[in-house]
DNA sequence: GTCTATACCCAGATAGAC
DNA sequence: GTCTATCTGGGTATAGAC
């Protein structure tokens, strides 16, 4: 990887974290360049507009998700086990969820308010997960219901993340995750 | 009601709608005063800071909720019927949810990112509903589980609202609302 | 109470030296 | 590639005339 690409990647990683913690609109170029110890002028050499960074962050997130899903596929052949891997994301990142909610959900919520054309791009983050979830339900024998089941599981996770964040209540998250595991076993 | 109070109320109603549609940070004083055909200078006569308006909006929302809940209590004596009234909010405002999500959830999500001291105030909007829900579960015979059931129902609604908004999919909302009705009947 | 004018700040974005 | 300096716009908030 060339030096320019490395720096670009660092910028995207930093922007990703700041968008998650502070929101997109509330994160300025200065926030990002300061966090990197880089001047604003230099920053503009890599990204011309704020929307460019947003696109790069979304694209990176989707790519990371695809990698995770591929790993889960190889580690776990049982669809139920795969669905449980999805739920284990909640418990594994419970501290971050308590503080900042879900990165996907909060970004989509924010962009929806900004009447941002990039909401479609942002919702692609969900779609990567959703298609994979739908696939697992199909492997369990569901056909027409597979799509709505995938949306159901997305929604369950989002609701848990939002309430956990609002009430700063990790115990609730743990309880709900356990309930979903039971639900998966009963499928 | 005095003239000043009427105007104050109009401002709060307008701010409420704009915060819902555009978000708090993305709504400026100009947006609100323009929508009211009022000058910015005059606007400051009623509200000194943006946080003052936010407080007023939150307070108004809580008050409206308390009124709704009192009405449901008087209209419906069966706890299951009351819980269904809660769910019927989803289907009744499905168009708005599809466009803008849930007003409570999106505001709490946003304020959480702004490290806003008023997140506690904002979460009070949830708490008004939650305490009432907990009460209904207690009437159904649940004791210790009543609190977690109330949080569960809040989370279900929030997840549905977020996914409905992200995917602009009212059919999903309708399906999930029907599923929750079944769940209530089986309690 | 209602208005205009304005101070002030911070954000996104650009120009150009090195 | 990296920097400093700067432009421009929009936001919060205030002053003061009417």
Counting DSSP H or I runs of 4 or more residues, the number of helices of chain A is 10
- Major interchain interface with per-chain residue totals: A-B, 39 and 39 residues
**Overall geometric form of chain A:** globular
Computed CA radius of gyration of chain A, to the nearest angstrom: 18 Å
The percentage of residues in β strands of chain A lies in under 5%
Order of helices and strands of chain A: HHHHHHHHHH
Tally the beta strands of chain A. Answer: 0
The share of residues in helices of chain A is over 70%
Biggest sheet statistics of chain A: none
How many angstroms does the end-to-end distance of chain A come to?
Answer: 45 Å
Give a brief rundown of this model:
The first copy, chain A, is mostly helical and 187 residues long. Chain A has helices spanning 3-22, 29-36, 40-46, 50-75, 79-92, 94-100, 103-113, 119-139, 145-167, 170-185.
């Amino acid at each position: 990887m060339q030096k320019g690409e490395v720096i670009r990647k660092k910028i995207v990683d930093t922007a990703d974290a700041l968008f998650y913690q502070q929101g997109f609109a509330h994160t300025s170029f200065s926030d990002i360049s300061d966090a990197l110890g880089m001047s604003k002028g230099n920053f503009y050499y890599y990204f011309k507009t704020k929307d460019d960074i947003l696109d790069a962050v979304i694209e990176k997130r989707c790519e990371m998700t695809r990698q995770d899903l591929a790993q889960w596929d190889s580690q776990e052949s049982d669809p139920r086990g795969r669905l449980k891997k999805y739920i284990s994301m909640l418990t594994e990142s419970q501290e971050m969820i308590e503080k900042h909610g879900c990165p996907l959900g909060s970004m989509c919520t924010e962009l929806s308010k900004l009447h941002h054309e990039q909401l479609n791009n942002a919702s692609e983050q969900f779609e990567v997960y959703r298609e994979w979830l739908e696939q697992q339900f199909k492997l369990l024998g569901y056909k027409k219901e597979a799509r709505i089941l995938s949306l159901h599981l997305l929604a369950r996770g989002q609701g848990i993340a939002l309430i956990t964040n609002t009430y700063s209540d990790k115990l609730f998250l743990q309880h709900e995750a356990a309930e979903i595991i039971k639900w998966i076993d009963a499928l």
